[in-house]
Amino acid sequence: MVTVEADVRRRGGLTLVRAVLTNDHATARTVRLRSRLGGPVRPPRRNGVVDPRWNDGVWEVTIGPGRCRGVGFVSPAPPTEPPIEVVSTDRSHDRGRSPEAVLATLDGWRPTDATAGGP
Fold first, then answer.
1. What is the pLDDT of residues 12-32, one digit of tens each?
2. Any idea what the CATH number is for the domain that residue 17 is in?
3. How many CA atoms lie within 13 Å of 96's alpha carbon, on the beta-carbon side?
């Protein structure tokens, strides 16, 4: 089972949603979720680039067995409970995903340092 714990706060005319998804399955799961706020979603950006796990208001991520993943977004819509809904959870088959989506699932990735003088 994939469980969701969400926190919702309204501040400055915006609704902030933070959630943690936990995969209790023995296999990796691909999870899709979407906002229930009824307004546009403003997903997080890094250096001006929208998180590639977001597509048309739906967030998709692969969560390893026994692992957790956090997600957050902002919307001008008023809060609702629950603020997000799980659209689907499927056993993961990482095939057909873009390189950007695969990189987004890695923790703290960075290019290798060519000046480090490896083997």
1. 999 999 999 999 999 999 999
2. 2.60.40
3. 3
